[in-house]
Amino acid sequence: MKNKIGIHLRQICMVALKLEPVLEGLKKVFEVRPCYTDPSVKEFGLRNVLIPIGTDFLEIVAPITENTAASRYLKRRDGDGGYMVICQADAQNVQKAVRNNAKNAGVRVAWESKTDEFYCMQLHPRDMGGAFFEVDWDINENFIGSWHPAGGLGWTDDHHVGSARKVRGVRIQSSNPEQLGNQWSKVSGIPLGNREGQLFLPFLNADLYFVNLSDGRGEGLSEIDLEVIAVDRVLERADKERLLGDNNKVCIGGIRFNLTERKNHI
Length: 266
Prior knowledge:
By secondary structure, the chain is of the alpha/beta class. 22% of the residues lie in helices and 36% in strands. The chain has a seven-stranded mixed sheet. A seven-stranded mixed sheet has the order 9-10-11-8-12-14-13. Strand 9 (193-195) and strand 10 (198-202) form a beta hairpin. Helix 1 crosses helix 6 (231-240). The radius of gyration is 17 Å and the shape is globular. It starts with 6 loop residues before the first strand and ends in a 5-residue tail after the last strand. The relative contact order is 0.19.
């Protein structure tokens, strides 16, 4: 199933009580390293770090002040976990369409910021369900290079290539996946697909699945599908660091990582 709506999954945000243990786990298991820290998130009482996975990113945020949205989310979900699905629109009119869809669906804009070069729009997780849905527009309209939240093009100057090469999918668990999937479909404008009984939104580069609850933590972003080089070696490192869960899922920062083998190592 192909998506004709120009929305690319560019960044997945994880929230953690403490940033360093999550970062260290990702570095040791997936041989990645951070590329950027955004000083502007301090205004939200946070600090962050971005890690490139191929040409997309994992972000970790952690509260540095009390009573932030992130700290309330940590309390509600009983610990670290997934926080935001951050997408890049390939044109301003695509982002505008998502905003209009959200308004028609009764979904509030939680926060937005606009400059001549970048327009950030975050939709409220209570209205969307499952996670923040952020759809941004970058003047460069480049899905593999420049990305404002990663400091523009600077991250490509020393692009470290580790074992993790591509985000294939994201999974949001819910007591009612169909209802949640329909809400995200309505707002994004992307028709839902069905793959072996699992509902998903096909972004341009990855899929967002809506799945049944599989733990006791309630609704939220629970899993990330990663394409890696040498799955067996990644699993060995995870086991050594005591970060290997059931069914060969790597468990870091409240997220379960499902691994698939990269066929082409070039």
